[in-house]
Write a structure and sequence with these properties.
171 residues; alpha/beta; 2 domains; three-stranded parallel β-sheet; three-stranded antiparallel β-sheet; 5 helices
């Protein structure tokens, strides 16, 4: 777009507060967009930074575009276009918005809890597996008491996998 002064940007969906990269990309290319889309785009960008058109009224849209080009609107609005480009680059892009939200929600005085760690997915899986196996091992090695179905006496079952023998004792 940098080789062009004007750009036609048409949104696929028209609704309040709904503008997309179609408009932002025109600003990033430092062009003056003829824009059909978000009815309140001027809430986000200076009204002088784009020219609204209605593509449903073709003749009026073409006339608006011709008049803007003939009256050198790009040159007249260039300072506003460049300021809007800066706005998109520094304040409205996704990373700037996310960074701002994180800064708003982060208390710089707060410190991570004692022993706070940031784990990789691999480390979490490894640690989960280690804890699961340890729990299973302790469960298997622990003494279990159950009722013998043929009698009312309790049987103590212990498993010792180190010697691979099963010991039984009566309670």
């Amino acid at each position: 777009m940098s080789d062009y002064r004007y750009h036609v940007a048409v949104e696929n969906h028209i609704a309040e507060h709904h503008w997309t990269e179609k408009l932002a990309d025109a600003f990033l290319g430092a062009t003056l967009p003829f824009y059909f889309g978000c009815p309140n785009a001027s809430d986000y960008f200076p009204a002088e930074s784009f020219i609204p058109i209605d593509i449903r009224d073709f003749d009026t849209a073409v006339s608006t575009i011709k008049d803007a080009i003939d009256s050198h609107q790009y040159e007249r609005r260039l300072p506003v276009i460049l300021e809007t480009r800066r706005l998109v680059l520094e304040e409205i892009n996704l990373f700037s918005v996310l960074s701002g939200e994180i800064e708003k929600r982060n208390d710089p005085a707060a410190t991570p809890g004692q022993g706070a760690l940031l784990w990789s997915r691999h480390a979490i899986r490894h640690e989960f597996l280690r804890h699961t196996l340890r729990f299973a091992w302790e469960r298997i090695n622990s003494t279990r008491v159950r009722r013998n179905k043929s009698s009312s006496r309790l049987i103590d079952q212990s498993y010792d996998f180190h010697s691979l023998h099963r010991f039984r004792g009566d309670c």
